[in-house]
Structures are given as C-alpha cells and as structure tokens.
Design a protein that fits this description.
The complex is a heterodimer of chains A (123) and B (410). Chain A contains 5 helices and 6 strands; from the N terminus they run βααββββααβα. Chain A is α+β, with helices and mostly antiparallel strands and 123 residues long. Chain A has a single domain (2-122), classed as Alpha-Beta Plaits (2-Layer Sandwich), CATH 3.30.70. A 4-stranded antiparallel sheet of chain A has the order 2-5-1-6. In chain A, a hairpin with a 2-residue loop joins strand 3 and strand 4. The radius of gyration of chain A is 16 Å and the shape is flat. Chain B has 410 residues and is mostly helical. Among the domains of chain B are: 6-168, no CATH class; 326-410, Alpha Horseshoe (Serine Threonine Protein Phosphatase 5, Tetratricopeptide repeat). In chain B, 69% of the residues lie in helices and 0% in strands. Chain B is built from 19 helices and no strands. Chain B is elongated. In chain B, 46% of the residues are buried. Classes of the chains: A alpha+beta (123), B mainly alpha (410). The interface between A and B is medium-sized, with 23 and 19 residues.
Chain lengths: 123, 410
C-alpha cells in the first residue's frame, strides 16, 4: 500500500529555506531520506517551491479562474511530498513522526488512491 | 468531606474519579464483562456528581455514591437496550449484587481481574496498554491515541472492538491460576511498561519515544503492587520506572537540549524517587531468581550510584545485561548489551556484539544506529561513523535527540 506524506511548513520555515541552502536542519532531512531508502519503504519524493510561486486554476461553471498563490489561504502550506510503500497506516504515522517536517510544521499522511484509479488518471 | 467552594468540589470530584475510576469500572464489569457499559454508567455518575455535589455537598462516602449512581444508570441502560431475552442475564446479575450491597460502602477491589482481562492473550497485544489506560485510569481515547501515534478515531474504534471481544469472547474476569500466572503477569507488566515508554537512555543519543504517560504508568505500577504485594517482578518494574523518572529533569538542558545519561548532572536527579526505587528493588531481590524487570532496575540502580560515587560501574551493568539477553533476547536488549560491553571492554568488543545482530532487523531501529555511531566514532572510523550517525538521525523522532546527534556527527 502506498502512502503520501504531505509536508506543511509555516511561512517562517519557507523563508528560511529560501535564503539558506546550508541550513543545519538540511542534514536532518538528508538523514531521514537515507533512513527511508535503507528501510526499503521509499518510493519517491520532491520538495516544492515556496507557496507564492504557485498558481491555482479552477473552472467554475465552465469559466476559468486563475488565482495567484496557493490553493488554500492557510498559514501553513504544502512544502513537499514523499511517497512510501508501507504495510499499514500505523507504519506510515511512525515514519511521519520521524520526518523533520513533523517537528517544524506538520506532516499529513494520506493513502494514495488505489492503483487502478491512478492508472485511470495517467493512462 | 468539606468543600467550601465549587472549585473545591470540582477538585474533589476529579480526585475521586482518578482514585476510584478503575475500582468502579472493575467492580461494575466483573460480573457482566461489559466494560464499555460500565464506563458509560460511570461517566453518567460523574456528570451527575458535578451537579449534585456542589448543590448538596460532597457525600460522606463519595465512592459509594458514585457506585450507586453508576449502578442505576447501568440498569437503565441495560433495560433500554433490551432485547429482553439477551439482557435478562445481565439484569439479573446486576440486581443480585445490588441487593447484597445496597447499604454497604465496602465492595471488593476487582481491579486485578480487570488488569488481567486487559492483557488477556485473546486480545491484540497492541491494545493491552490502551485498554488498561482507559478502563483502569479513565484516560480518554484521544489522549491515548496521541501517545501511541494513532488517529483518535482509529484508537476509539480499536478500543470498542477490544471491549466487544471482552464481552462476547468468553474472556473470564479472574486472576489466572498459579500455573498460568507468570506468563499472564508478564503481559500485564509489559503493558504497563509500554505506557512508560522510555528508551535506553544509558546510550548516548538514543531516541526516546516520550509517550507522555509515564506518570500514568507509575500509577498503574503502584496499583498493581498494592494488589500483588508479594510479586517481586511487580516491584522490579516499579523500581525501574521510578529510577528513570528520577532523571526526568536532568534529561534536558535549560535550552531544551537533550542530555544523554552519561552527561547528566547527577545532582539534579530526584533523591526521594531513587530511594523509593531502591527500597522496592531491595525488597524484590529476596526472590529466588532475578527476572527481567528486576535486572533492568538493577542496571538503573548502578547508574544511580554515580550520584554518590561519581563513577559508573560498567562491568556490573554489562553482567546484568548478559542475563537480560538470556531471558529476553530482543533487538533492544541486545543493543543495550552492546552499549554496555562497549563501555566496559572497549568499542571493538561492543561492535562485535552489534555485528552479531541479524542485519535484516535493524534498518528502522534507531538505538542500534546511535550505539553503532558512538562506538565507531570512539574507534576513529570517521566515515563509517558518519554513515551510522545519519541513520540514527534519520530515524530519530525527538528533535532534541536529532539535534544532539547532528552536532556529534560533525
């Protein structure tokens, strides 16, 4: 079963990341990534640019609407995604708790849609 | 009981609830096996107390008042549920014992049975501790869920399932026969220790899963000792928890920094808790053979000795661990043994013990990597140590531990 860890950051955390590629906690992220790979649960991951760089598109009653910025106007924003292959949501929560993102912001655990549905989206 | 203000009354209700919760749930469910309904009935009684006691004064015997109120609510509940035929035996049981105890304020303490029910082999071992915390101490599902890293809804559902199994699964409310007792008692002790949830803080930079339930675990340990004063292992477990608890304050620096045991200021340890632990350990050691928790407590006792002598007797710790791995050869105890060997006989010897552990077991076990990193660093194997540090850092949950490992990694 595959799970997504959705990593949310506060604006302060994003600001720090933008200015400083040598910030000490990057070591923690690298170590976490390595632990995931060596535990054999890692499927894929990527960090996202800061939320201001996002553009949100939606169609309402056939009309396009494009909005600057992220989808939801909340304080904490999606910062990255990690996909893991794990036997249960309990195991996913365990890895989420170890994620450096959990102690500086929040990490949401969500199962990926069933594979058949994912194939439906991607062909 | 005097209660001059409503706040006092509330505090009294809180205290009575805390002290009597398990006794009342155990007593109400001992015959019916219906733990969930007993808990509901007791909650109703506590809500009633919140209105009645500030108005009418706190009753002479608050526990008996709660029991009577809970019993009425229980009977109402069973009546409402009825499905007459199915509920009739339950109602009869309730009527029978309410007849015998209408005026009595004394009722038997059934908590020991309840503890054994919670840790029954027919119940998922992962649920032993949550069940105890809820039925004996009255903790709510959300609080338990946080400590066990499960969503509150899921924890709630699992607790309901476990209680349904107790009611319908033929689990008997009884203290096991002597033949089964050691094994069944182990399950109870394990469940209490799991609530305590402390790691191996005698190893530098080991992640401690703070379960935030250590006070509750010690409370459960005291309840169990009160009920089984003759069991040496119960004292062993309590001594172990008290020794660890004694160091709580010393474990963090003023800035929140993580401080491993070897660097802790022993003057900050709580002397009264250490003395209490030592008393229990001394009393336990009269038994014929040393068992797991007594040995673990003995190790903590050696560490505590540093407050007096200024040094740690690692060879003694190593010998205790040797016995522990013989009794209980788990990943955790082997790692603890390796750390002790590393201190007593040098890092090479410690690494040799670690190398004997099946590599398939270790990818997600943080203490293994923390100890490995520490030993490799002492040997001056910098790049191998850095790799092990990375693994320990990546698996750490506590940000303070992560930080301390990052600094030591360099």
């Amino acid at each position: 079963m595959q799970f997504a860890l959705l990593i949310y950051h506060s604006p302060e955390e994003f600001a720090m990341r933008k200015n400083d590629y040598t910030h000490p906690h990057l070591g923690a992220w690298r170590a976490y990534y390595q632990a995931l790979v060596e535990a054999g649960v890692y499927v894929g991951a990527n960090a996202l640019e800061v939320p201001e760089t996002g553009t949100t598109v939606r169609l309402t009653e056939g009309k396009r609407s494009v909005q600057d910025g992220p989808f939801a106007e909340t304080k904490e924003q999606l910062a990255g995604i990690i996909i893991l292959e794990l036997p249960s949501v309990d195991a996913a929560l365990e890895w989420a708790a170890r994620c450096p993102g959990a102690s500086i912001g929040a990490v949401e655990v969500r199962p990926l849609a069933p594979e058949a549905m994912r194939r439906g989206f991607t062909g | 009981m005097n209660a001059s203000t409503p706040e006092d009354t509330h505090r009294i209700i809180e205290r009575v609830a805390r002290e009597s919760y398990g006794r009342l749930v155990a007593y109400l469910s001992a015959n019916t096996r219906d733990v969930a309904s007993a808990e509901d009935a007791l909650s109703n009684a506590l809500v009633a107390a919140l209105t009645a006691w500030p108005r009418d004064g706190v009753p002479q015997n608050p526990e008996a008042w709660l029991l009577t109120a809970a019993r009425h609510s229980f009977i109402d509940h069973v009546r409402h549920r009825q499905v007459a035929a199915a509920s009739e035996p339950t109602l009869r049981l309730l009527r029978e014992d309410s007849a015998e105890m209408t005026l009595s304020t004394e009722f038997p303490d059934e908590r020991l049975k309840l503890l054994f029910v919670c840790a029954h082999p027919a119940i998922d071992p992962a649920m032993h501790t949550p069940l105890m915390l809820q039925t004996v101490l009255g903790l709510d599902a959300a609080r338990i869920a946080h400590a066990f890293l499960v969503s509150p809804t899921t924890m709630g559902q699992r607790l309901v399932r476990a209680k349904t199994k107790i009611r319908g699964g033929g689990i008997r409310f009884e203290v096991p026969q002597e033949r089964e007792l050691p094994q069944r008692l182990d399950a109870v002790l394990e469940a209490i220790y799991a609530a305590f949830g402390i790691g191996w803080d005698d190893m530098a930079g080991v992640d401690q899963r703070g379960r935030d339930l250590s006070e509750e675990a010690i409370w459960l340990g005291r309840v169990l000792l009160e009920l089984m004063p003759g069991e040496a292992e119960v004292r062993g477990l309590l001594a172990l928890m008290l020794h660890c608890e004694a160091r709580r304050r010393a474990r963090r620096g003023p800035d929140g920094r993580y401080i491993p045991l070897s660097e802790q200021d022993s003057q900050q340890w709580s002397l009264p808790l250490i003395q209490e632990a030592e008393r229990h350990l001394a009393e336990a050691s009269g038994g014929h053979h040393a068992a797991r928790f007594q040995l673990e407590a003995a190790i903590q006792s050696v560490h505590a000795e540093r407050a007096r002598s200024g040094r740690t007797e690692w060879p003694a710790i190593m010998l205790f661990y040797e016995q522990i791995v013989r009794i209980s050869p788990t990943l955790g105890t082997w790692t603890g043994y390796a750390a002790a060997v590393g201190e007593a006989n040098g890092p090479d010897a410690g690494l040799a013990v670690l190398d004997g552990i099946d590599p398939h077991d270790v990818p997600a076990f943080q203490p293994y990597w923390a100890v490995r990193a520490h030993l490799l660093q002492r040997l001056g194997k910098t790049s191998e140590a850095a790799h092990a540090f990375d693994r320990a850092i990546g698996l750490a949950e506590d940000p303070a531990v992560r930080q301390s490992l990052l600094q030591r990694r360099g």
